């Protein structure tokens, strides 16, 4: 502990607009995460500004539409597509995106996530399908995994809406997610490549997974968690512990296989041969970074292709703030990863 304290870095220097957004998000999390494990959703909604789908192209030339996958459980996805496509253009890859929020907060219609997916659609040259999965604690593990896997199945059977106006190639499908969404993307990729869907006539094939600061954990307190407690914004140990308790099955601790996938406290997952190449993004001011590096190392030990991308000065969730230079650099790295994975596909 003393070593961690002595190595404690200075708080990050952020533009004042980003600093205000981060402070507001942190305060909303703290006030809405009740001690009894429930969420005050009305209170969080005061900060979580929602935006509807926009069928007309925006300034980026991107339009969006909501698609109902299962009305009974309110499972839907927001599809972002370029507004203009040339008839002879090659089919675009598809990015199925799982948002962050500690499994319990935010949604596919949250304004910052909607804006981020619009940027990804435009700059990656892909159709982005943002999944609005069920949230904890009302819907615990494995509800979020089930929902995102069912969206993949839906794409394979129903396809994308015909009016998106651009051709797509479902054999070049990427699962992506930030924070808790990165955790979901890993587990859904594991489930998908272990199932009969791989050998069936389902056209969806995973070309890669893109995990932006994925949310893994365990009972252990890592060096980064101790060193960055009270320094890195957005994530701290109290908020993180609350999120795991809300998401994991009743009575489970953080060494549950949903959280702990790196083998220190329980067996490593058995990954199938078809498990796709992975890109793992790590921020130097993210308390979760040790778990993320361990995850990449686990993939390497199992002979899986993995690209570890480090942003030394990045806070957790930096990709949601386009004013941060690293947010632009990230998009270029993701695009390069997708192009490499597609060329090897």
UniProtKB/TrEMBL annotation:
Gene3D superfamilies according to UniProt: alpha/beta hydrolase
Domain Alpha/beta hydrolase fold-3 residues, every copy: 95-319
TM stretches of this protein: none
Pfam families reported in the protein's UniProt record: Abhydrolase_3
UniProt GO molecular function: hydrolase activity
InterPro entries attached to this UniProt entry: AB_hydrolase_3, AB_hydrolase_fold, Carboxylest/Gibb_receptor
PANTHER family listed in its UniProt record: ALPHA_BETA HYDROLASE FOLD-3 DOMAIN-CONTAINING PROTEIN, ARYLACETAMIDE DEACETYLASE
Protein name listed in UniProt: Alpha/beta hydrolase fold-3 domain-containing protein
Lineage: Eukaryota, Viridiplantae, Streptophyta, Embryophyta, Tracheophyta
